[in-house]
Amino acid sequence: MKVSRRRQKQEPRRNLMNAAAAELASGRSFDTLSLREVAKLAGIAPTSFYRHFHDMEGLGLALIEEHGEALLDLMHRVREQASAGRSLIRVSVETLFDFILSNQGTSQMILHESRSRESVFRHAAEKLFATMASDLSEFLVWDANRRGVPLAHPRLAAVSTVAILFTAGIAFLNARAEDRDRHLEAAIVQLRMIMRGAEAMAATGASA
Fold first, then answer.
1. Which residue in 12, 26, 69, 175 is deepest, having the highest Cβ count within 10 Å?
2. d(Cα 100, Cα 41) in Å, to the nearest integer?
């Protein structure tokens, strides 16, 4: 009974987030969405919106947070696949680009807000990028130690990797279908250059 009631309480919140995400995927920008419009699309009364979010800003932040959690979980699973023999870089790019394509509205929102003027959404997007970079940096150190390969500047390599993945991912999303493979392969090459450069710098003892 308690589980059922919890689901009933969470369902309208889920519907609100789905409605906003669907509008973003259709090409709308978040700042053009109104509370009343999203509530109507979600099938609830506008006054009921406030039971789940303080305002539209709260809804937008929830979308970014959920997107980030899904991405981190996805990348962790990608590393497990790579440990089974697949190229970490290739599977990371392919998986991330598929995720961006499947969640293009929120992905576009996050990248747009990361480049906008000061806003809570910009801070949330920057926090997401920093979290992903920190998580990747820890993995790169662990993986380098596992393979017995020296690695210079793992944090910088991780930050650069995350920046390239998001920038290239949006270019991939906006490209014509026949051009997407080219963007994917270009991103793979760029990431390989970063990692090989970090390994080469460590091997030669270069600090910069």
1. 12
2. 23
